[in-house]
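Example record

The entry below shows one chain as it appears in the dataset: sequence first, then structure tokens.
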Amino acid sequence: MNIKDRILYSVLGLGLGFTLTLQAQPVQFEVVASGLNNPRGLAFGPEGALYVAEAGLGGDGNCIIGGEQNEVCFGPSGSVTRIWKGKQERVVTGLPSIAAEGGARAGGPVDISFQGNGNGLVSIGMGTNPEKRVALGPEAALLGHIIKLRPNGKYSDVADISGYEVVTNPDGGAIDSNPYSVLAEPGMTIVADAGANALVGVRANGKISTLAVFPNRMVDAPPFLQLPPGTQIPMQAVPNCVAKGPDGAYYVGELTGFPFTIGAARVYRVAPGSDPEVFADEFTNIIDIDFGPDGSLYVLEIDANGLATPGSDAALIRVSPDGTRTIVASAGLIAPTGIVIGTDGAAYVSNFGIFPGVGQVVRISL
């Protein structure tokens, strides 16, 4: 499942089977970074700076047929930008990127995470069969990998997540990998592979193991397929974000695959050694999650009315510890792709996250 090539535009649909309340005070947006190329995941570094992974805009290198049967071409245009003391700077450049002509919906650096005072870890997406990497040339070899950033701007390889999919194929489906979210933990790096429908762990010695698999579900076929009434078709989970909860468990959000059924996306709780449990459901096309200091879960929907529906609205929803759901923001969010809650209590969101040159990071007061 190529998560980035699935991103379309849609109309906001609010809630299915639960009560949503609007925030009483107007949401305040502040643009803290702009001019970004397909900005995705966000993280605060040990010094307090905010970092954002930029998937780049591909380039004029070798091309392949991507996960959506379109031509995507390679270029070393991926990067990581640091936002610190009112300034933004690309502190790492030259990372692999693939994109169709025009650079929208690129695959490349898609998330970043820091553990303690250590170096940052970056996941580099792929979004198709990893065996196609060879055709893109040696510079593209790090697609589908986790890399470690050094303070001097250099980086080193940590693990080939997409290669693990080729060897093990945890969900038993088509070979497809897109390591979309990374969480740096002591002794183990946690990766949500949206293409493989799996959560995997990478130990300090580089050994990769499967922590959880998220199976397909049967859903009603959309009317435009013109199938007999009552026909159901399989929908992939597409787990694309992982965060550590206040209870120490991992929480995984799912985008879901075609037909992007409204209200079908879930947040799963994954405790070590246990199968995934549904923690919260009835969301639509989750793109990222994070926890606030009070234990509230913030769920970012890239499209609240289904990716197969025209439109461009999104939603940021807070799930309080008592289960109350509040729409924190929707207007002004255009194809948001990442969220992190800062120590200042604000939400920082990657906005215009599937476009080159116009991507932003916005601060949303909570």
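Notes for this example: Residues 161-168 form the longest helix (8 residues). Residues 1-26 have pLDDT under 50 and may be disordered.
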